[in-house]
Amino acid sequence: MDGAVVLVLCLSCLLLLSLWKQNSGKGRLPPGPTPLPILGNILQLNVKDISKSLSNLSKVYGPVFTVYLGLKPAVVLHGYEAMKEALIDGGEEFSGRGHLPMAERVNKGHGIIFSSGKRWKEIRRFSLMTLRNFGMGKRSIEERVQEEARCLVEELRKTNASPCDPTFLLGCAPCNVICSIIFRNRFDYTDPNFLTLLEKLNENFRILSSPWIQVCNNFPALIDYLPGSHNKVFKNSAYVKSYILEKVKEHQASLDVNDPRDFIDCFLIKMEQEKHNHQVAFTFENLIATISDLFGAGTETTSTTLRYGLLLLLKHPDVTAKVQKEIDSVIERHRSPCMQDRSRMPYTDAVVHEIQRYIDLIPISVPHAVTRDIKFRNYLIPKGMTVLTSLTSVLHDDQEFPNPEVFDPGHFLDESGNFKESDYFMPFSTGNEKQMD
């Protein structure tokens, strides 16, 4: 055997042994498959369907187990009970943000999705309060959604009932709602700046969901030295941030602290209020990153859900007929739907929930991390350990949702046809994060 190969293998084994001693010195991690040097358990995971791989491992090691993603271990929570115990009952201890090198390169710890600690709490609290308070003497978020829905319907009418691919239009609508909240105004669907922004956001979502990005996150050294689609993410993100910064400067020039127009105005006012408090949360960097996060989290996820929803309604005409009957009965044809209608439309509410459950859009939530050394189910998990949560295992739990692979709005209806809440409904996250869904 070549001497260089032997040297690499020896160094790899020593490195893995060192890592094992480091973890075992802090406590006993949950069981899991034996990792390979450097690669960890990567070869035992299908990068195109990691959720299924984790489900298979849970059958061997139970609902709490450890996998090595490259050199670093991560604790996996599989199933509702384990996730509830960790993220809801012990939410503070599991409230840290897991290590995601690609996201850290883009946002540098700023924003609302990939940050953690006090900064995250401050930005999250401010964002929730600001979004909830919209409508206090101004146009509410609901009104903005209704306006965009009318614009979307008008664009669809222009097709004259001929076959069309609605992907583009269904992407424009949610992005425009966010633009209205962040920038005050919506854009025409032909506006070149709006189209470029939408293109960059959608391309980043597709790339960040690819197996290659999972490889980059597990082996971050590749990011700096290899070509690949990850570089496109950096370029697109730079464009989006530049566009947002331009809008922020426009807002600064016309800001009236007594009459905030949108999210940017509210943030700028908060920055001014906190400037003497050495408040690290309310900075230009955090403003730009937070807006970028709101676009990234709300555009492609919503448009994809709408696309799948249309496909499922086409595939299940009996469901579509019941929804239409309920719409005609409650809303009729003379006005736009509103949130107050929801309580009188249990079947439609159930269909919306079932669409999100069935498509399982985000099989694994954004990684968590434990904020201190903790004991969890007789295992000792060290501070900073990444925690992965399998949302698929909850959304497709066959005890809560009989025949989970079947699209059935009855999963969210009781025997009387009333809408039935389910604690297992967590299409994006659970615990503290769920409040931002």
Write a brief caption for the model.
By secondary structure, this protein is an alpha+beta fold. Helices cover 54% and strands 6% of the residues.
Structure explained in plain terms:
- This is unspecific monooxygenase.
- Residues 1-25 form the signal peptide.
- Keywords: Endoplasmic reticulum, Heme, Iron, Membrane, Metal-binding, Microsome, Monooxygenase, Oxidoreductase, Signal.
- By secondary structure, the protein is of the alpha+beta class.
- It is built from 17 helices and seven strands.
- A five-stranded mixed beta sheet has the order 1-2-7-4-3. The chain has a two-stranded antiparallel sheet with strand order 5-6.
- Strand 1 and strand 2 form a beta hairpin.
Helix and strand topology:
Layout: H1 3-26, H2 50-61, E1 64-69, E2 72-78, H3 80-89, E3 96-97, H4 101-107, H5 117-133, H6 141-157, H7 167-183, H8 192-208, H9 211-218, H10 221-225, H11 229-253, H12 263-274, H13 284-298, H14 300-315, H15 317-330, H16 346-359, E4 368-369, E5 374-376, E6 379-381, E7 386-390, H17 391-395
Parallel strand pairs: 2-7
Antiparallel strand pairs: 1-2, 3-4, 4-7, 5-6
Helix pairs in contact: 6-7, 7-8, 7-13, 7-14, 8-11, 11-13, 13-14, 14-16
Widest β-sheet, arrangement of strands: 1-2-7-4-3
- State the helicity in percent bands: 40-55%
Give the overall form. Answer: globular
- Proportion of beta-strand residues: 5-15%
The CA-CA distance between the termini, in Å, is 55 Å
Cofactor: heme
InterPro entries: Cyt_P450, Cyt_P450_E_grp-I, Cyt_P450_sf, Cytochrome_P450_fam2
Enzyme class: oxidoreductase
GO cellular component, one term: endoplasmic reticulum membrane
